[in-house]
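Homework help board

Subject: predicted structure for assignment chain

Our instructor gave us this sequence and asked us to write out the predicted structure in token form, then describe one feature. I got the tokens but I'm not sure how to describe them. Can anyone check?
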Amino acid sequence: QAIAGRNPLSSVSCPSGHFCVAADLAGHVVTYDGVEWSSPMLVDPDGGGIVDVSCASSRFCAAVDADNRAMTYDGTSWSDPLVVDPQGLDFGAVSCPRRNYCVAVDHGGSAIVYDHGWQSPVKIDGTFIGFSDISCSSPSFCVAATHGWGVFTFQGGAWSGPQRIVRPSEHLSSVSCA
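My token output:
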């Protein structure tokens, strides 16, 4: 389904049955209140399109675009897009396990933490093509999937990996941690 006519959805996040946010590649978001979807709102007018959105609750979401910019939602409004990964190779995904805390990954192998504000990118590994997805069940546990065959795991304050989890001829596209 297109939000604003011709732009396909790129991501959706539903922290409850009464709140969801969906985003498209043209920078629009729509919200769901348990009954109906809102009208599209343009939150990333000059970006390369929202590639992922993650909501910890109806009062906190983060979205990342293809131009290394991020936006946050406070339950009322979206922040202006902010370049948070100036050296990155486009964002791949974002995961927000709790309010005011997220981890985003880029296609260049870096992770960027949001902890009441975006921190500097941290290079996890540069020997692969980059990250396709990330899922964090808490601020102390995340799994980031590469565009290739493996994952990196964040646990106990440090990243480990890469760990091969599929055959070399197969590729990962997403990961989910409950």
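Reply (TA_rk): Your tokens look well-formed. For the description, you could write something like this. The chain has no helices and 16 strands. That's the kind of observation they're looking for.
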